[in-house]
Specification:
This protein has about 90 residues and is mostly helical. Helix content is about 60%, strand content about 0%. It has a domain of about 55 residues. The relative contact order is 0.06.
């Protein structure tokens, strides 16, 4: 029976996650992917998520404009009317 010597590093990698194991003796693969998924599938999923985030950003921007423009218009009218009112005094 052959015994193999395990090498350990003096500096542990991710000591809270991996525990006492070193980079030379990992317990699981460093690239974790669900079984049966491909890199292309992950790219498509990432693109869909990015597209949804972009659409949500644009929708939020349009909603913000719906609030900012009327408030700015009221503030501008208040400024103009205030200047006219204070000039007459």
């Amino acid at each position: 029976m052959r015994t193999e010597e395990t090498t350990t590093s003096a500096i542990p990698v991710f000591p809270l996650i991996l525990g006492p194991h070193s980079i030379a003796d990992p317990q699981w693969p460093l690239v974790l992917r669900p079984h049966g998924s491909s890199v292309l599938n992950q790219d498509v999923t990432a693109f869909k998520a990015a597209w949804r985030n972009f659409v949500r950003f644009i929708a939020g921007f349009i909603a913000a404009i719906g609030v900012i423009v009327p408030v700015a218009a009221l503030a501008g009218m208040g400024y103009v009317l205030g200047r006219k009112y204070w000039r007459k005094r």
